[in-house]
Amino acid sequence: MSRNLLIVGAGIYSVIAREIAEDMKCFDKIGFVDEVAKTTPDGIEVAGTFDDIKALSSEYSDIIVAIGNPEIRSKMIEKIEKEYSYNIATLISPRAYVSPLAKVEKGCFVEPMAVIHSGSEILTGCIISAGAIINHMCTCSAYTHIDCGAIVTAFATVPPNRKIPSGIVFTKDSEALFF
User: Fold this and answer.
1) pLDDT, tens only, 19-64
2) What is the CATH number that goes with domain 4-89?
C-alpha cells in the first residue's frame, strides 16, 4: 500500500502541514477533510467531512490533525486512535533542527526553522511553529502550540493545551506568571 496522508482540517494549519509533508517526500498522496471548508486557503479541494474519515481509511494510511484549537485537536486525535486504523503521522520539516536526543511524539508537526534541543520532549499533538526554539531538557506537554519565534528555555515544562504566543520567552517559572 502506498503511503498517503489525510489532513484533518482545511485552514491555514492544513496548508502548513501539507507543505511540510511535501518537503518530507514520503507521501504519495495528500488529501483533506473539514467540517465547513470545501477548499483549503490555497484552493485545494477537500475530500470530505469529518464523517468521511472512516471511509477514507481505505485510501489513506496516515493522518494528522491540523487544527489550531488544542481542545478540538486533542479530541480528534483521541477519536482517531480509538475508532480508526490510521497511523497518526508526525511531520518534521527537513528545514527544522531536531536533536537526535530529542523526542517528538505522534500527531505533532514541526515547522521550518524551528529548533528542538537535546533531551527535550514534544508530546502528542503539538505544533512547533517556524522559528520557535525549544531549549534543552524541556517538555511541551500534549497539544501545546509554541508559536513563531517563541522560546521555551532550558528545563521548562509547558502545560497541556496551551499556546505560547509569538515572541514570548517561556521559562521554568513562567507558569506562575502566564497561567
Assistant:
1) 999 999 999 999 999 999 999 999 999 999 999 999 999 999 999 9
2) 3.40.50.20
What string of H, E and C letters represents the secondary structure of the chain? Answer: CCCEEEEECCCHHHHHHHHHHHHHCCCCEEEEECCCCCECCCCCECCECHHHHHHHCCCCCEEEECCCCHHHHHHHHHHHHHHCCCEECCEECCCCEECCCCEECCCCEECCCCEECCCCEECCCCEECCCCEECCCCEECCCCEECCCCEECCCCEECCCCEECCCCEECCCHHHHHC
pTM above 0.90, yes or no: yes
| CATH 2.160.10.10, applies to 92-178 | yes
